[in-house]
Amino acid sequence: MVRKEVKNHQAVAHAETTLKKIRMVRGGQELNGAHKVFGAAYRLLDPDGQSPTVTRSGFRDFIHPSEDRLCTVRELARLQTFPDAYEFKGRRCDTYAKSRYVTQTQHEQLGNAVPPLLARALAFSIRRQLFERQVPEPRSHTPGILRVIETLDGHYPEDNLGNKENPLDELIYILISRRAAERQYVPVYTALHRRFRRWRGLLGANPQEVSEILRPAGLASQRTKAIIGCVAAIHTDFGDVSLSRLRRWSNSRAYNYLRTLPGVNDKVAKCVLGYSLHRDVLPVDSHTLRVSTRLGIIPQDTSYFRAPALLEASVPEGSRLRFHVLCVLHGRAVCRSRRPDCSRCPLRRLCPSAPDYLE
Fold first, then answer.
1. Is the same domain home to 274 and 225?
2. Among candidate residues 276, 266, 279, the one with its CA nearest the CA of residue 307
3. 78, 62 Cβ separation under 8 angstroms
4. Would you say residue 64 lies in a domain?
5. Is 4 a residue whose pLDDT tops 90?
6. Do 90 and 203 fall within a single domain?
7. What's the angle, vertex CA 258, arms to CA 253 and CA 259, rounded to 5?
């Protein structure tokens, strides 16, 4: 049965069976057995509680707090901060209709929409991030940063994170390493490269086969789509599956090109620029962000979006990639996300986040 189209402010004329269920819920009873509604119960609106989230489903309607009826679309829209002048067109709810996937009902539109006040708050926050909180000028006083680098250099003389000299190797290596532990992504990269000695082979590869190789690193379908997509895009752009020509490009040109490739974010692009093309860049991963905020180099609430510019303004030229490597090594060994081992941290006297009893 298709419910009639009603205005947003109009209440639906409920059948006696629906009224019975509403009264049961108001009386504190659970809907079960013959009264169960497709495994879900109506919800009684609490006038003294916080505004709830309105879902798209027609059989999860809110019961009016004082009347034996379901809330109107207008009342639900008010809960979601929509102005009264805003109209939701179409049927109110067509749970049983064969045409339910043709046009969205009023409930679906309301449940899928972002509340205007939330959208406004997000928009203002993004604007502040982009325009109002200016990135500081590069600092002329960097003795604190240099001391951090010098101290960590003595504890982590090695600088091999497994990164690749060939830029395409590095691109695929970093795409596999994102959001994965070293014990996961290193053998996965090795297995993928063993299967495809030349990355050109990925052009006609079966995505299922590639996904199966990538599975131990997690997010296999996403990684498969990104890696195969990158190889295809590079082949289309250059007529070859190679990024060697980026060696002759400027930093900005190479960076901007890499960012056009599927799955390539700021960190991935800068890893290729830094490790394979030997450019003075500072990739920001979870270790770099965590160590930098704990040391007070950048504010605690700094996002991944703002961190690269802030760090590059703080870390002197010529030390940026090394700073990233040291943060990764230190973040893995000592300054871990959970239970950092501050007692054996060589930076504890410089770190404002270190416990007082270690001073």
1. yes
2. 266
3. no
4. yes
5. no
6. no
7. 100
- Tell me: do 286 and 328 sit in the same domain: yes
Per-residue pLDDT tens digits for 106-134: 888 888 888 898 888 888 787 776 655 45
The first and second tokens of residue 35, run together, are 């009264």
Helix or strand run (H / E) with residue 43:
strand 43-44
What token pair was written down for 272?
């290729």
100: exposed, middle or buried (C-beta count within 10 Å: 0-12, 13-18, 19+)? middle
| Six token digits for residue 140 | 């002329």
Cα separations in angstroms, 247 against 78, 263, 274, 358: 57, 21, 11, 47
Instruction: Look at the chain and report how many structural domains it folds into.
Output: 2
Amino acid letter, residue 171: L
Question: 92 and 180, same structural domain?
Answer: no
Report the distance separating Cα 64 and Cα 74, nearest Å: 12
Q: Which residue has the tokens 């901060």?
A: 81
Residue 173, in any domain of the structure: yes
Residue 127, judged by CB atoms within 10 A of its CB (0-12, 13-18, 19+), counts as exposed
User: pLDDT tens digits for 197-246?
Assistant: 899 999 989 999 999 999 999 999 999 999 999 999 999 999 999 999 99
Supply the range of the domain harboring residue 88: 16-113
Contact call for residues 188 and 224 (beta carbons, < 8 A): no
The mean pLDDT value of the chain amounts to 85
> Residues 110, 78: contact at Cβ < 8 Å?
no
Residues 298 and 185 reside in one and the same domain:
yes
Write the pLDDT tens digit of every residue in 44-97: 888 888 877 787 655 457 889 889 888 888 998 998 899 888 888 887 775 555
CA separation for the pair 39, 88 (Å, rounded): 27
Distance CA 87, CA 288 (A): 48
Q: Residues of 159-171 as b/e, b for ≥16 C-beta within 10 angstroms? A: eeeebbebbbbbb
Contacts 24+ apart (CB under 8 A), 117-126: 117/81, 118/81
For residues 37 and 34, what is the distance between their CA atoms, to the nearest angstrom? 9
Residue in the block written with tokens 């046009």:
103
